[in-house]
Amino acid sequence: MKNLTDSFVYLGHWPSAGSFGFNTDILATNPINLSVVFGVLIFFGKGVLNDLLDNRKQRILNTIRNSEELREGAIQQLENARARLRKVEMEADQFRVNGYSEIEREKLNLINSTYRTLQQLENYKNETIHFEQQRAINQVRQRVFQQALQGALGTLNSCLSNELHLRTINANIGMFGTMKEITD
C-alpha cells in the first residue's frame, strides 16, 4: 500500500523543467502510456477500424441479400413445383377418369358387338334350319310325287289296254288341237 501512495506523491513532485528520461515507476507511468497508446490507436486506427467494420457490415448485408434472393428463388421453385404437381395430379385424375370411361366404353362396345354377332349367328342358324326344313320337305315331296307317279303309271299300265291307251292319246291330241285353234 505504501507503494501506491508513493506513486501519487511522485506525481505531484514532477520536475517542471526539461529533462527527458525514463520513469521507472510502473504505476505512475502505466495510465499515461495506456492513454497515449489508446489515443494513437483511436486517431490512426479509427479509419482502419471504420473500414473494417464497414466491409464487415457490407459483407453481412450482401450475405443477407443473397440469402433473401436464394430464399425467394427457392420459394418460387417450390411454388412452381407445387403448380406442376397440381397439374400432374389433375392430368393423372383426368387420365384415370378417361381410362375408366374408355374401359366402360370398350366394355359396352364389346358387349354390343358380341350381342350383334350372336344375333347374326342366331339368324344364320334359323336360316339354315329353315333351308334344311325346306330341302327335307322338297325331298319328301319329290319322293311322294315319284311314288305317286310310279303308282299311277303302274295302275294305268295294268288297267289300260292298248286300245284304251290309244284312245286316251287321241283324245288328248284332240284337246290340244282345239286349244290351239282357240288361241290362234
Task: Put the structure in a nutshell.
The chain is mainly alpha-helical and 184 residues long. The protein is built from three helices and no strands. Helices cover 91% and strands 0% of the residues.
Features:
mainly alpha; single chain; 184 residues; 3 helices
Q: Report how far the terminal alpha carbons are from each other.
A: 183 Å
Give the count of helical stretches.
Answer: 3
- Binned, the helix content reads over 70%
Largest sheet: none
Given helix and strand content, the structural type is: mainly alpha
Runs with pLDDT <50, length 5+? 7-12
Give the H and E element order: HHH
Count every beta strand, where a strand is a DSSP E run of 2 or more residues.
Answer: 0
Radius of gyration: 69 Å
Structural shape: rod-shaped
Strand content: under 5%
Arithmetic mean of pLDDT: 82
If you had to describe this structure to a student in words, what would you say it looks like?
The chain is mainly alpha-helical. The protein has a domain at 39-153. Helix content is 91%, strand content 0%. The protein has 3 helices and no strands. The protein has helices at 2-12, 26-159, 162-183. The longest helix has 134 residues, at 26-159. It is rod-shaped. The termini are far apart.
Q: Strands, helices and their partners?
A:
Blueprint: H1 2-12, H2 26-159, H3 162-183
Keywords: ATP synthesis, CF(0), Chloroplast, Coiled coil, Hydrogen ion transport, Ion transport, Membrane, Plastid, Thylakoid, Transmembrane, Transmembrane helix, Transport
Transmembrane segments: 32-49
Coiled coil: 64-98
